[in-house]
Write the structure tokens for this entry.
Amino acid sequence: MEEKVIVRQPRDGRGQERPKKRDWKKLIAKAHLHPIMVHFPNALFPVSLTLLGLYYYTGDRSFEAASFYTLIFGTLAVPGAIATGLFSWKTRFRGNVTRIFVEKILWSIVLLILATICILLRSFIPDIATQHSIAGWIYVGLMISLMPLVARLGFLGGKLVFF
């Protein structure tokens, strides 16, 4: 007669089985956190620019303030998008270095730097959007420059998913 050997997982203080580290990686990978995280900067940066445009069109300062706050939240989401992207690259794509991944990493860093510069400019010069000066034009130019960056990053991400 054969004996069955039952191997039990170690239990935590509450009597529940502890998941293995490898199980956590699988759970995180199955949650698809990167596509979730990238939607924030991809949506908030264009909204921020649109609100800034509405300020210029209407002269209503609340649009400019909303543009700034939206820019802050979009920028705060970028590190999460980068971190989950790196995790996805390491797990799903086994860290293979290809042109697409190098480009995505570089453009992500540029996006974070430019968005942070926009926040710093607006923080140190609160009326920068109302000024008809070089600083005002630089601020608007940087805000506009975020759009092709998120578009390119989204395009490259789409190539990885759909092609």
Remarks:
- The two ends are 55 Å apart (CA to CA).
